[in-house]
Amino acid sequence: MRTISALLVLTGVSLLGNQALAADLGGDCCADLEERITELESTTARKGNRKVSLEISGQINQTILAWDDGGERDVYQLMNSNSGDRVRFTGSSRISKDLNAGFFLELGARLDATASADQFSPGDDGEEIRTRQSIWFVESKALGALSIGLGAPATDDLIAYNLGGTNVAASANAPLIGGAFFTRDSAADTLNSLASGSTISLRWRRFFERLDSPTDNMVRYDSPIMMGFAASASWGGDDYWDVALRYARDTRDFKIAMGIGYYEDRNETNNTLGWPRGGDNEPNGRDTKIREIKGSASIRHEPTGLFASAAFVHREFDGNDRGVQTFACFDSPDAQNIVANGIGCTNRPDFDYFWVSGGIRQKWLPIGSTSIYGEYARSEDAVTGLNVAVTSAVGGDIDYVTDSTLDLWGIGIVQQVRAAQMEVYLSYRHLDATVRGVESTGPQVEAPLDDIDLFMAGSRIRF
């Protein structure tokens, strides 16, 4: 802010200097200019005091999403949920030679977005600002960093390592693009949108629900970087805890980045990944546990620009609450018939997801690097054991899913525009799923699901 003031003063002096010498303007020659500077300072963003620095940054990422679900097609203008609109305020101050303290506040726009749009609406996020992160921290080069507040857990973005620079168009967190769209029943030519009691609507995101670890009120520790390795641990909520190990190396010919972590969620009041909520019944020995091992790795060959990335999530369910159990554990007549037909009450089966991507990143144009990529992902048993909506099935649902898989493939291009801190992208994704199960009366059934195609074009600009 003082820099702005100094520039204004210097500009005023350079413009008025000769005239001031030639005319008798009295001792208050610059009073008007100083008054104007004071006015500008009072209306301009600046740091709160002389000891804490303040940096403001952020981004805008708007896109066009065209979709075709096999029975309907449309085009929406949305915010790209891969990396949404946000503004950040980062402050820090030096306590000693090795110790700093500071804060991080990130606000995000809740706009119609690619993660919330469906066939009925471009989105349900409204138009408001929400707090994404709000933490204070103390950091030491020798001892590491401690942070407290609403923030990212240790395993946050652990599946996001991608040195190809294509995450803005196609990240491993696949449900962020088109995940809220309902699957279409090709036999009935209607959407599988029923949701009542223990029956869940069959949206595409059900096949890869919550791949990234969510922000929460937490305490987090990050170790110093040693030989390219850094460890993290966090605890928070009611309650979760996680640990992560990251590694990065940059040589003349290769760039490498990777991470792996463990996440455990015992939050009984949380919506357990689309299935009915668990209840806080710990005094009776009932609880909810969701355990995850997740990670990613990426490598890029600098001379050729060839890159490859991979990510995975393995999830396990444990406990006696509804949120981690199959439909056979419920008290409804349909569930009792399921048990009578030989299906026992168990925890939901393990969920597995993996994603791979590869391509080339080169500076073919003077404006910046170009990344061309292809990707493939697969999820297994995401809705196995659940009661899901399928319009053409008896009663409008499959009472017990015995097998569920999803396959995703896509291609795209990302063009960097360095002079404007901008990326322009174009992407295509194709999703198809298989869901097999049984009716409560015993018959085997397979859901007749249409595939969905998603086309996206947009840009992200950072400031």
What's the main sheet like? 16 strands, antiparallel, barrel
Beta content comes to: over 45%
Termini Cα gap = 18 Å
Give the total of domains.
2
Instruction: Give the overall form.
Output: globular
Enumerate how many helices there are, as a single number.
3
- What is the CATH architecture assignment of the largest domain? Beta Barrel
Report the C-alpha radius of gyration, rounded: 27 Å
Summarize the structure.
With 463 residues, the chain is mostly beta strands. It contains three helices and 23 strands.
Describe the model:
It is a single chain. The protein is mainly β. It folds into 2 domains: 1-46; 53-81 and 154-462, Porin (Beta Barrel), CATH 2.40.160. Helix content is 9%, strand content 47%. The chain is built from 3 helices and 23 strands. It has helices spanning 2-22, 31-42, 333-340, and strands spanning 53-68, 73-79, 86-94, 99-110, 128-140, 144-151, 184-185, 190-191, 199-200, 216-222, 229-236, 240-250, 254-265, 288-301, 306-319, 351-365, 368-380, 387-389, 397-398, 400-417, 422-438, 444-446, 452-462. The strands form 3 sheets. Strands 1-3-4-5-6-10-11-12-13-14-15-16-17-20-21-23 form a 16-stranded antiparallel barrel. Strands 9-18-19 form a 3-stranded mixed beta sheet, with no helix packed on it. Strands 7-8 form a two-stranded antiparallel ribbon. Helix 1 packs antiparallel against helix 2. The longest helix has 21 residues, at 2-22. The radius of gyration is 27 Å and the shape is globular. The protein starts with a helix and ends with a strand.
